[in-house]
Write a structure and sequence with these properties.
By secondary structure, this protein is mostly helical. It has 1 helix and no strands. 93% of the residues lie in helices and 0% in strands.
Length: 58
């Protein structure tokens, strides 16, 4: 293997690594967004349950 081939392989691996890092970071951000939406929906559901229990007790 010559020096140029090895240099090209290293460059390709660095690009691939950067792409994977970006992909995982983006996925992590999306997971955080989804978790936040789920927390919000869960809060709304708890409010609905609380309101139902209050109105049914009258």
């Amino acid at each position: 293997m010559n020096h140029q081939f090895i240099s090209n392989q290293i460059r390709e691996l660095k690009v691939a690594r950067s792409t994977w890092i970006w992909t995982f970071n983006r996925a992590g951000s999306r997971i955080q967004e989804i978790n936040e939406q789920l927390r919000h929906l869960n809060d709304e559901l708890e409010n609905i349950k609380r309101n139902r229990s209050q109105t049914s007790s009258f």
